Amino acid sequence: MENESLPRHRRPTGLRTFLFGAPYYPEHWSDAERADDAARMAAAGVNCVRMAEFAWDRMEPVEGEYDFSFFDEQVECLGGVGIRTILCTPTATPPRWLSFRYPEVLRVDAGGRRMEHGSRQHCCTNSPAFREQSWKITSAMAEHFAYSRHVIGWQTDNELNCHFSLCYCEACQRAFREWCRRRYDDDIGALNEAWGTAFWAQSYGSFDHIVLPYDRPARANPGHVLDHRRFVSDSTCEFQREQVEILRRAKAEWLITHNGLMPHIDYAVFARDLDFLGVDLYPAFTEEVHSIPYAADRARSAAGNVLVPELQAGPGGQVGYIHRTPPPGQMRLWAYQAVAHGADGILHFRWRTCRFGAEEYWCGVLDHDNKPRRRYQEFSREGNELRRIGTEILGTSVDVAAAVLAEYDQEQAHAAMPLGMPSPSEQARTAHHYLWRRKLPVGIVEASDSFDGLKLIVLPSFTLMDEALAWRLTGFVRAGGTLLMTAWTGTRDRFNRITDLTPPGLLAGLAGVTVEEYGRLDEAENAIELADGTSAQAHKWYEVLAASSAELLGRWRHGHYAWALAVTLNRLGAGRAIYVGTYLSEANAAALLDLALAEAGVEPILPGLPADVEAARRTSADKTLLFLLNHGDDPQTISRLPAGRDLITGKKISGQLVLDPKDVAIIA
Ligand SMILES: [Zn+2]
User: What ipTM does this complex have?
Assistant: First the structure.
């Protein structure tokens, strides 16, 4: 039970083999076209494929008539060369007979438009008829494949909520009413109180009268909206849980995962039903080097180390766009970047580019013509390296000393009343980006996770506050931690109602300030003059602070509140709490976060690193792995290295290393 004692974000997956491979779609290819697949995969170091997530029609061509022979053959053929299979429940692409016979399963958007067959994710996960079909196909697959020694686990569905998360069908309406009834213990008065239905005569006399929150004709009630978003996440978790329970009953040793991260799912809850979470990574959408660190760190915050069921191989293209083709070395570098940020398995999307369908330009390891080119060579190099070194990486997890806190409800509360201001996650990304650029051991940590091992916590406008979280944050500071919180923190209760306390509400004692006035700022309208004479740009918002016990870190420079407190520091116990009376932005992150770093004692992973070189550290009780990744186009000299051995080259390292462009070293 060693894992259980670790903070959630620090838990390894428990995998004993580092998984490497690709999502594989044999149903798209003829016997002749597939003939070399197993041998080519094995030569490339593949030990795992993911299959069948979009093949329901092949396995149940007619309702109730199952035929698993095709996938039996594929699983056996791959198993024969040592490649194991992660199967998927195929519920992201329900077959036509299903929606034809049970049209009530089709999702409906807020405008009343019914989704149709012909793409994917068109069925509602709250529909009883669809739930029944999900139960049947999952049960049939579980029962059948329990006897296959080559099937090691499952992915539930595929990217739940990827295209469609807010459904307004009648089944959702009914399910939301029942969810509300349970949440408020059948007490409609409690719901009216929680949502503040006294406003605009919205009060309900019965749970049977509750409607889904529509923004029509005017904006919906923020309390109603937040509860609905909780319902959407809870019911998505419940849909998955039904599948997981079937699979676990069929074979307890199966590993079960899912590929996120998508809207309206609280992954900290969702992942409790899984062995580990998966995260799909497509960095070519933004081409930012920070893309994988942020996405992987977010995913890891839910339940620890992850599998990457889909990592970009080639360019991805759909109707409206096509990515730039990743240059040589990029695919492998992305893979090691994901590993540096907590991946215990990498599957590159996908084995071979399909010649038809909506993703015919979502390019895989092999091209349309099935000829191995540079992407296959690179995939092969990576696979054979990971086959050699993978087990040395497993069991370790990513060091985090500087954390940005995240919580599903905070984001949803903001979305219900955004006022044009940055969301908690936008600020989290900004803070994470800056701390990562500073080469610090940064991570995203769920608010409900343990704060053990953290020296700095950035709390990005957590408006919802309760005594338990306030108490834990206070304990973190008293014990020596540094907390930085930004505008609007602690202004609401857990029902998304504004509290009667002066902001920052339950955190006023910890911050040592109250907010006496606030208002919108237009860009460049005001700046904060910091105590050392430098300045920080305010972002969209000003708060005038009154100190009870805090000391000055920054004042407003202009306006009727010029010289009023804008940023403060309050010492409490062995630690300190910094309150920032504006939002974080790319422009002010350095100035404001440096105030916290000056106090927090967070050491860089390796001092003096060149700008293009990223560092991350994975550790366990008896092991430290230092990842160094050169994202630039020139060789980089890295100094002040600890003595050790590069896992990839096997070479001894002492003091200095020259890293080629797009290359990586893992020093053990
Ligand atoms: Zn629905």
Answer: 1.00
